[in-house]
Amino acid sequence: MLSVAAGVIAWLSPGGLGQSGAVTVKDGTSASLYLSLTGPVADAPSWLGTILEVASEGTLVVLGVLLVWSWWTGLRRRDARATAGAVLIGAGTIAAYAVSEAVKLVVDEERPCRALRAAADVIAACPEPGDWSFPSNHATLAAGLAAGLAILWPRLAAVTLPLAGAAALLRVLVGVHYPHDVLAGAILSSTVVAAVLLVFLPLAQRTVSRMIPAS
């Protein structure tokens, strides 16, 4: 599972390994899709950019609240699986974020709002130079939380997965990421969190059950 995800992320990557300087993506399917999505938004009133950026952060807040709710519900009900699972989701998401940061330093992909400045007029402020684009940290965090919660509580999938999709789309709409950036981040984190739950949940559940025995 992890090897397949790594292969897909490597395929989505614009390169960068062993290359000096920033990698710029100025053409291809992802760049074209980026321009088609950001164009109409850039023509909207300036206040829309603020709303979209707040909404982008808001998706992470909601997913984080759902994770805390999952943990607290499990603890209150003395449900060792839910309690342990929530902790593992958090740990897996943090691990995926760390990997995402490491990949950024290897790929050094320039933000599209900088690489396509001549062709794109974006609604949000472009991050500072050196704040690399691939993969998207927001998409990494959102997808990790969403996938983990959907695995632990399948009924939540109808809420968490659309929230993760919205988080990824919003990062493109405001102009700070290419579509392949958010796709790579989502694949990375959802795979890592799923693997963490698959491997460690039985052991973590047994450990927690000794600490909070069922009533």
TrEMBL record:
Subcellular location: Cell membrane
Gene3D superfamilies: Phosphatidic acid phosphatase type 2/haloperoxidase
Native source species: Actinoplanes friuliensis DSM 7358
Highest taxon, organism lineage: Bacteria
Main location, first listed in the record: membrane
Alphabetical UniProt keywords: Cell membrane, Hydrolase, Membrane, Transmembrane, Transmembrane helix
Phosphatidic acid phosphatase type 2/haloperoxidase domain sequence ranges: 84-197
SMART domains: acidPPc
Protein name (Swiss-Prot/TrEMBL): Phosphatidic acid phosphatase type 2/haloperoxidase domain-containing protein
Cellular compartments per GO CC: plasma membrane
GO MF annotations in UniProt: hydrolase activity
TM region positions: 46-72, 156-176, 182-203
Bilayer topology term: Multi-pass membrane protein
